[in-house]
Design brief:
elongated, 35% strand, 16% helix, OB fold (Dihydrolipoamide Acetyltransferase, E2P), 637 residues, alpha+beta
């Protein structure tokens, strides 16, 4: 039997067993068993003494009188009963006790809550008068337990709370000192909600309800939560009658979630949503509230059918958007902290609960900002100008670039038409090249402004990204922030001379530059191109031109039209070429497809800044459109 177990009370003998044991005499020397008629109340050993020299002559009356003299000195000592004992001495590990008529025993010192003093009277349980080693077995702890057990049992039966002290934390809960004996308090029964740090409660005194009792196992289970729930239910009944929308009440933060916090109002829980915690931006409820802390909240809504109560904290403070247009008038300069960044802009906190948006287009006059994070960062304090205030929708539009003067306003005067400049090619598109003429200022060179004579299919045929090129300013549109540039304008227009060189009727040789749906573009030399309509190619079926003409093939030509004003030369083939082999035709088709795919891939540089505006319309139409516009008898170069 271990020390923590409750001693099993000695089983009481039956009436039959008592009758059988009465009058049995055991001879300790011989082991002989005999029976005798024993007068009532006297021990057989007193009448039959095998070691005496002669039979006793003491009468029954004399023995009873003699024993009566010692009644006051002797206790009725029986195993399994509590006896009064006196402390004789105390050692490092045990307490030596005297009980009965000069009987001694020892009890472990750890069974005493306080160290006893010699001469002190204590109660102990006599477990055994003699164990296997002939030693008396006593227990102070079990005596205390038996004394307290009745009180505990009565409290349990009467459903009456008892006071106890939390002693130490153990697996699954806490041990409680209940009137001197240990009881078990499960962790789930300590409070209404989980206790994060049980050690903080050790040593505290509370009221407990006994929920389980087992004397044989010496097991007592108590609960504090049952008492708290009962108290909470009483408060809840009162709160239901008192709670009204608009009231300001104190509550305790019970739990925190991503969307808010649950507040204990004293019997009922309400939800304090994250959007009702502050007029300002709240990333997580834990930034504002803390579990276990008391705070004042306002009752926003009550739904008794669903038992839901909505609470608010920001409603206790003034509404920050009142007269906001007077506080932040349009055109005023303000300072604020960047609190959020999105793909389209950055939100700036001007004061608690008031934020403005700096749109990505309002961050720089000249930089093509791909993402706001390239300009500002979270927590950075910036200066901006108020562009628009909408109190109804709680919106303020801000601009960062307005802090500085718009550089585009001065560009028309700085770069008048025909100004010659040099710049760096920053980006290539399918319709032209963007050239940076000063930091943050790009102009567009349209493909039609790259060469007087050559039809440029893609700007990469003339310039490369990162290349420094000379350009001429053709137009500056400060309002739309566009600058039109030209490369060919740096040279004189050669077409008056070309039109004389290639007058109608002149025969010349050329090379196929490319085959189109409506005809063939030919290279006449010196970057001069002419166009052979399908009707003048010698091939009746225009869809089969690529079967007869391939890039670089020499052709004999005759000029049928030369137009200097529209910059075009129209020719006809004088010697029709023979049809190519099927292998050559297929190879030519594959080469053209690869060239088209390459041009499409180079058409837009993903890493380069996007153009600030769409390409301006040019007076000259693209090659395909021109080909369609040219009558059967001619086309432009």
């Amino acid at each position: 039997m271990t020390e923590n177990q409750i001693p099993i009370e000695p089983e009481q003998p039956t009436a039959q067993e008592l009758a059988e044991e009465e009058g049995v005499i055991v001879d300790a020397l011989t082991g002989e068993v005999s029976t005798a008629v024993i007068p009532d109340g006297l021990s057989p050993e007193l009448l039959h003494d095998p070691y005496g020299e002669e039979p006793t002559s003491t009468s029954r009356a004399d023995f009873e009188a003699l024993l009566a003299e010692f009644d006051e000195d002797f206790q009725d000592i029986r195993e399994g009963e509590i006896v009064q004992a006196k402390v004789l001495r105390v050692t490092d590990s045990s307490v030596i006790l005297e009980f009965g008529f000069k009987s001694e025993g020892s009890v472990a010192l750890e069974e005493f809550k306080d160290r006893p003093e010699p001469g002190q009277e204590v109660e102990v349980l006599l477990e055994s008068l003699e164990d296997d080693d002939g030693v008396v077995v006593l227990s102070k702890k079990k005596a205390d337990f038996l004394r307290v057990w009745e009180k505990i049992r009565e409290a349990h039966e009467a459903d009456r709370p008892v006071k106890g002290v939390l002693v130490r934390k153990i697996k699954g809960g806490v041990t409680v000192d209940l009137m001197g004996v240990d009881a078990f308090l499960p962790g789930s029964q300590i409070a209404l909600r989980r206790v994060p740090n049980i050690e903080d409660l050790i040593g505290e005194t509370y009221k407990f309800k006994i929920i389980k009792l087992n004397k044989r196992r010496r097991n007592i289970v108590v609960s504090r939560r049952v008492i708290l729930e009962a108290e909470r239910e009483k408060k809840r009944e009162t709160l239901v009658k008192e709670l009204l929308v608009g009231q300001v009440r104190e509550g305790i933060v019970k739990n925190i979630t991503d969307f808010g916090a649950f507040i204990d109002l004293g019997g009922l829980d309400g939800l304090l949503h994250i959007t009702d915690m502050s007029w300002g931006r709240v990333g997580h409820p834990s930034e504002v509230v803390e579990i276990g802390k008391a705070l004042d909240v306002k009752v926003l809504d009550i739904d008794w059918n669903r038992e839901r109560i909505s609470l608010g904290m920001k409603q206790l403070l003034p509404y920050p958007w009142t007269d906001i247009d007077k506080k932040y008038p349009v055109g005023s300069r303000v300072r604020g902290k960047v609190v959020s960044i999105t793909n389209y802009g950055a939100f700036v906190e001007l004061e608690k609960g008031v934020e403005g948006l700096v749109h990505i287009s309002e961050m720089s006059w000249t930089r093509n900002v791909r993402h706001p994070s390239k300009v500002v960062s979270i927590g950075e304090e910036i200066e901006a100008v108020v562009l628009k205030v909408d109190p109804d929708d709680e919106k303020i539009s801000l601009g960062m670039k307005q802090i500085e003067e718009d550089p585009w306003l001065a560009l028309p005067m700085k770069y008048p038409t025909c100004t010659r400049l040099s710049g760096i090619v920053r980006n290539l598109t399918s319709f032209g090249a963007f050239v940076e003429i000063e930091p943050g200022i790009d102009g567009l060179v349209h493909v039609s402004d790259m060469s007087w004579t050559k039809r440029v299919e893609h700007p990469s045929e003339v310039v490369q990204k990162g290349q420094e090129v000379g350009v001429m300013v053709l137009d500056v549109d400060a309002e739309n922030k566009r600058i039109s540039l030209g490369i060919k304008q740096l040279l004189d227009d050669p077409w008056p001379t070309i039109s004389q060189r290639f007058a109608p009727g002149v025969e010349c040789d050329g090379k196929v530059a490319r085959v189109q749906d409506k005809g063939v573009v030919v290279d006449l030399g010196d970057d001069i191109e002419g166009f052979v309509p399908a009707s003048h190619s010698g091939i009746e079926d225009a869809s089969r031109l690529e079967e007869y003409y391939g890039d670089g093939d020499p052709v004999s030509l005759r000029v049928i039209e030369s137009d200097a004003a529209n910059r075009r030369i129209v020719l006809e083939v004088t010697e029709t070429p023979a049809r190519k082999s099927q292998e050559v035709i297929e190879a030519a088709r594959a080469a053209r497809e690869a060239a088209r795919a390459k041009a499409a891939g180079e058409g837009e540089d993903a890493d380069a800044p996007a153009p600030k505006a769409k390409a301006p319309a040019r007076p000259e139409a693209p090659a395909e459109a021109e080909a369609e516009a040219v009558p059967e008898g001619g086309t432009e170069a």
